[in-house]
Q: What sequence folds into this?
């Protein structure tokens, strides 16, 4: 792991509120100036803006973007409607889970994907993932974004990365043991299910080399009862994470496990009242 890049992440985490706001507005203005000339979707929404924006308070006057809008695409691949570049520019194809409605295709350029990898490092910092670790990802590796970016982010840190897709739970347990994996990536519910399968097969997961579980996809990693149960069964620390195909890896675990931090170095969080629609902070 590059020490200077790590120190830059620490610097950003320690900015004062005023310094953070300056950083965020600078990043936002750069993004808008980059995409608006060629992104038809956002040009129609935001093309009348006078750039650069002068403060974050101006965000309250901007229109929302809804997932339903992103799904109204005429592109034959059903890619999200907010593409900035021609299809040939993109190198990563992923789809949302489709839990609510038809899966949405989200495309990323090489630069986009590097940003995903860089942003995932905040999660991996919390897990203290290093070159001496062996990380196994119990994930299908289908078109859902899942742990794809985590896979490349872990490689970027120099640790041994072990794919666990397309396997039965028993086979994954055998791979965990034989590879002596020290970190397991999975959903909270699968961590519990895998422990149950292990118990049925006379395998004690607490005796494995796994010392950390990085979880995502469900709220369990930040629910004390669920988190404590996983940690007790596996005798390992649980590190939570949250993200989405449409926006990226926005949340990483608080050091004490008490919920998630919003990565404000890369995301601007706006909290609105359900009743009034106005700022709740």
A:
């Amino acid at each position: 792991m590059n020490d200077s890049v790590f120190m830059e992440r620490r610097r950003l985490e320690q900015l004062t509120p005023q310094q953070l706001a300056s950083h965020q507005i600078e990043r936002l203005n750069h993004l808008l100036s980059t995409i608006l000339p060629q992104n038809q979707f956002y040009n129609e929404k935001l093309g009348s803006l006078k750039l650069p924006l002068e403060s974050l308070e101006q965000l309250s006057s901007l229109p929302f973007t809804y997932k339903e809008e992103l799904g109204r695409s005429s592109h034959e691949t059903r890619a999200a409607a907010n593409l900035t570049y021609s299809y040939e520019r993109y190198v990563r194809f992923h789809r949302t889970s489709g839990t609510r409605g038809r899966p949405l295709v989200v495309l990323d350029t090489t630069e986009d994907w590097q940003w995903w990898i860089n942003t995932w490092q905040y999660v991996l910092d919390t897990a203290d993932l290093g070159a001496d670790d062996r990380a196994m990802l119990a994930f299908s590796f289908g078109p859902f974004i899942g742990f794809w970016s985590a896979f490349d982010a872990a490689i970027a840190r120099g640790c041994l990365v072990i794919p666990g897709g397309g396997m039965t739970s028993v086979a994954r347990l055998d791979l965990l043991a034989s590879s002596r994996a020290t970190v397991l990536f999975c959903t909270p519910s699968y961590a519990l299910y895998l422990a149950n399968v292990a118990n049925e097969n006379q395998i004690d997961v607490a005796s494995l080399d796994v010392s950390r579980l990085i979880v995502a996809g469900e709220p369990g990693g930040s629910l004390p009862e669920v988190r404590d149960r996983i940690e007790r069964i596996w005798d390992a620390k649980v590190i939570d994470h949250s993200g989405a195909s449409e926006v990226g890896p926005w949340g990483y675990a608080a050091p004490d496990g008490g919920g998630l931090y919003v990565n404000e170095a890369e995301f601007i969080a706006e909290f609105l009242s359900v009743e009034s629609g106005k700022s709740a902070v």
The mean pLDDT is 93. The chain has nine helices and nine strands.
